[in-house]
Design brief:
Order of helices and strands: EEEHEEEEEEHEE
Number of strands: 11
Radius of gyration: 13 Å
Number of helices: 2
Structural class: mainly beta
Largest sheet: 7 strands, mixed
Shape: globular
Strand content: over 45%
């Protein structure tokens, strides 16, 4: 299973970014997928979890600002981030696993290398 994130960058507060997660051919349909982030000195936290029926659970800190979407033809999961805040600054990761609970607690089987998001004041 391959997981590759891209799209990070530096934006001012209030700005937007879209992260991409390119995965192996069958991952989008056969695995639970999630977006996570980790800021220096903090624990990795779940941002969004894609459920088996395609619905998405969002962490309270991002609900209403972040949106997950997917393009099955491109084997890609996206994280649209709007109204970014300095506290959103972190390394963002995409992850996949067959077991939802394991994925959401940050112990998923397959991880990308991460993409850095920096939000300035």
């Amino acid at each position: 299973v391959q997981v590759v994130e891209s799209g990070g960058g530096s934006v001012p507060a209030g700005g937007s970014l879209t992260l991409s997660c390119l995965v192996s051919g069958n991952v989008l349909s056969n695995y639970f997928l999630g977006w996570f982030r980790q800021a220096p000195g903090t624990e990795r936290e779940g941002v969004a979890l894609v459920l088996a029926d395609g619905s998405v659970y969002y962490a309270d800190s991002v609900r209403g600002r972040f949106t997950v979407s997917r393009d099955n033809a491109k084997n890609t999961l996206y994280l649209q981030m709007n109204n970014l805040k300095p506290e959103d600054t972190a390394m963002y990761y995409c992850a996949a696993d067959h077991i939802r609970a394991r994925l959401w607690r940050g112990a998923g089987a397959y991880w990308g290398q991460g993409t850095q998001v920096t939000v300035s004041t």
